[in-house]
Input
Amino acid sequence: MSNSWKSDNWDDFINGQNCPVCDLISSNKSEDAHGIYIADLSFSRLFLAKNQYVQGYCVLMCHRHVIEPYALTTAERTSYFNDMALVGRVLEKVFKADKLNYNILGNIIPHLHTHILPRYFTDDAPNRPIDPDVKKEYLSSEGYEERINLIRSHIKTVQ
Ligand SMILES: [Zn+2]
Output
C-alpha cells in the first residue's frame, strides 16, 4: 500500500483537467454533493456546506483554476482575499461566531478554495483546528434556505 497522499487524479487536477471545482463553476450548478450555491463575489463563488455540523461552514471557490494564491495576479489576489474577508465578516455577524478560521488546503482538490469556519467558544475543538466533517449534521431544505438567505442579505449590506 502506498504511503503517499497523492491521488490518482492529482496530475490531471494540477493541469486543470477534470477538476471538480472548475466543473462546478462552469456548469453553474446550484448544488453538488457537498454544498449549495450562495453567491458570486468579485473573484469567487460561495457555497454553504451541506454538512452544517460547524454552524455556518462555507466554502469559497476561486473563479480561476490556480493551485496556490501566488499564481493569481495581484488584482485577482486582492479580489479573492477581499471576498474571503467579506464572507468572514458576514458569517461572524449572521452566526454570532466568536472567531473565524480560514483553511486554504487543497490537498484533495488542488483548485484554490477556502473553507471558512465560524468558531464558537463551546465547539468541540478548543485551541485547535476543527474538522468540519468529524460529525454530520444535515438540515431540512427550509433550514438551508434560511441560512443562505441570511448570508445573502448580509452580503448585500456589507458590500
Ligand atoms: Zn479547477
About this structure: The radius of gyration is 16 Å. The chain has one domain: 10-158. The longest strand covers residues 113-119.
